[in-house]
Fold this sequence. Notes:
The protein has helices spanning about 20-30, 35-40, 45-55, 80-95, 120-130, 150-155, 170-185, 215-225, 260-275, 275-280, 285-295, 320-325, 340-350, 425-430, 450-455; strands spanning about 1-10, 30, 65-70, 100-105, 135-140, 155-160, 190-195, 230-235, 250-255, 300-305, 335-340, 355-360, 375-390, 395-410, 410-415, 440-445, 460-465, 500. About 55% of the residues are buried. The protein has two domains: about 1-280, no CATH class; about 285-470, no CATH class. The longest helix has 18 residues, at about 80-95. About 30% of the residues lie in helices and about 25% in strands. By secondary structure, the chain is α/β, with parallel strands linked by helices. The strands form three sheets. The chain has an eight-stranded mixed beta sheet with strand order 12-13-14-15-11-16-10-17. Strands 2-3-1-4-5-6 form a six-stranded mixed beta sheet, with helices on both faces. The structure holds zinc ion.
Amino acid sequence: MRIAVGQLWQETNTFNPNPTVWSDxxxxxxxxxxxxxxxxxxxxxxxxxxxxxxxxxxxxNDELLGLARFACWPWGRVESSTWSMIxxxxxxxxxxxxxxxxxxxxxxxxxxxxxxxxxxGAVLEMVRGSVGPDVPIVGSLDLHANITPRMLDSADLxxxxxxxxxxxxxxxxxxxxxxxxxxxxxxxVTTRCLTLPMICxxxxxxxxxxxxxxxxxxxxxxxxxxxxxxxxLYMSMPWFDCPHLGWSIVLSTSDDLPxxxxxxxxxxAGCWEIRExxxxxxxxxxxxxxxxxxxxxGTPVVIGDGADATNSGAPGDSTHLLAEFLRQEQIPGxxxxxxxxxxxxxxxxxxxxxxxFDGDVGGGYAPEYSPSVRLxxxxxxxxxxxxxxxxxxxxxxxxxxxxxxxxxxxxxxxLLVERSGxxxxxxxxxxxxxxxxxxxxxxxxxxxxxxxxxDPFVAATxxxxxxxxxxxxxxxxxxxxxxxPLWPLDAVVGPYExxxxxxxVA
Length: 506
Ligand SMILES: [Zn+2]
């Protein structure tokens, strides 16, 4: 058999006013044709898909054909000219490859450009148009996908992460391979989707210990039924001002019995029931957050700055916590924070290691949420911020955050980087020679995902309430394109009142 594989992956934050451009994709690694498998065949969902495929089909002469791979760290909307180049790349490769028996695409599900709200649906539609109506297409999705009718119309099967923090990228690729093999063996598929008019903050989305844990266990038990091809609950990417925003349940089965509709309804009722609990998060204004963190007995204390979560597409240059650190006379054990600020990195490189640094840092990308602050100190280290993410969001994923500099000001160490990257992983600091396990305070730019790697060694966690492009304080954000009413922006009576179902009811 001839199977085409590709990847289009980014979580777009439409409140980040800075466009994602071609060089951002190049930085994270663009591949076409054979390179897709050769260079990225062991990463995340692609890795899971390919390994499961060879486990099951290793003795056959199947051809795994690379289409294109575009992955980029979460940021603002993709510039339309860049999106047009991405489309051309997929289109060119589809033509070159010719007829195929099946397709797997590793997708995100919340990716937008200047002129399109749904790039995931657009690429699925394009592939469908090329391979024809009978070739099965399977797409994997992040748990924060915003499901659209276009995605459902174009794909045969959408397979989503079951974990938050996202630790099952490989397994999701494996489940996608299982699904594609079933479709290729001739099994039919019926998909039902129900989207609820609700969004929720990310802090309590933990699928192991948080309010939705029970619902994710239910998905797993559904998937144990041989008639179920895949079951998904997508908690949506809320910083995404687009139509079709909301939590979705998607269930794909090999038959079309009323029981499956009941399962979807039951999951929907479960989601609706926990919505208020999901919003009941204790967060503290920056000053109080730092004071509380300093009052904890034991170190280190991690402060989660969800409003500037780089994993949610915020710029990672908020200075609210840094400003509070710099106010302190001393911070036992020292404090660690990182900032995306290419100008400050260039300034540090210009003066060199060991020299004094004196300049404004941060607040360059979204000044309406965060001002810059003056930083004076010593450039302790210059480096290339290259490392490998192996945890929340990525598995074996090469990370390139450009050049970096560590500037030390009193007890505060500031890691300046040129480009955004995972704000949830302590390995970012380790890459720069800083030790988050022995410091006093450390900032994770993440609302929840950081717990996967920080919880094992921190004494306590404090959640900050700062302004930012990924603020869970909904009134601070100007939504214009989302369906209304949408809870909690508006009062909504019940989950079915203003949601939508797919296939549409005649
Ligand atoms: Zn996600």
